[in-house]
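User: I'm putting together a teaching handout on how sequence relates to shape, and I'd like one worked example. Could you take MarR family transcriptional regulator from Halorubrum ezzemoulense, show the sequence you're using, and then write out its predicted structure as tokens right after it?

Assistant: Happy to. First the sequence, then the structure tokens directly below it.
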Amino acid sequence: MTEGFDGRKRETLRRFAAVGAAAPFVGTASADDGSGDANETREAIRGYVPTTPGAHFSKLRDDLRLGTGEAQYHLRKLEEAGEIESVKDADYRRFFPAGRFDETDKRALGYLRRETPRGMILALLRDPSATGADLAEALGVSRPTISAAAADLEGAGLLDRTDGYALTEPERLLTLVVRYADSFDAEAVAFADEAASLVAYDP
């Protein structure tokens, strides 16, 4: 069982390390410690973070099949080297490639990584006239759940509730969904396939 897990972990790390090898910030000497395993893990994180920006610690750790301490150690080294950065988002710490996203992008990606807010954003991008009742039905959740998520999105500056529900940065959100759809879920991928030709915003 252990050998099978180790094999899957190595395969996962190599897959993301291949992406990391092509990343613009690869090869920062201060982030490496000379260990082959450590370098492979760092390269995997270098590949993972730019393709899954805004992922929180637990998701990154689990997706890369790392131990908690192992993930914490390598993330800290990469952050100290200025290759990645993190922001606190409620109970989560989310990771981004350093210098790539502005604060609004980071907030938007944080909410796109939450199931209900992401579903609301996708629904409002499809139909800007959707009501709270429409959103609750589309997502299969209660109206109070929609109201709570809407309040959070409004607080983040991504939603205006003055007259119904209106996204304040639809082009930005559309671009982020399309660009990183594969790192969200199947619904985002389907949406991106339909919407890719509409993207105009380029952060």
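A couple of points you could highlight for students: The domain at 1-100 is CATH 1.10.10.10 (Arc Repressor Mutant, subunit A). The chain has a mean pLDDT of 85.
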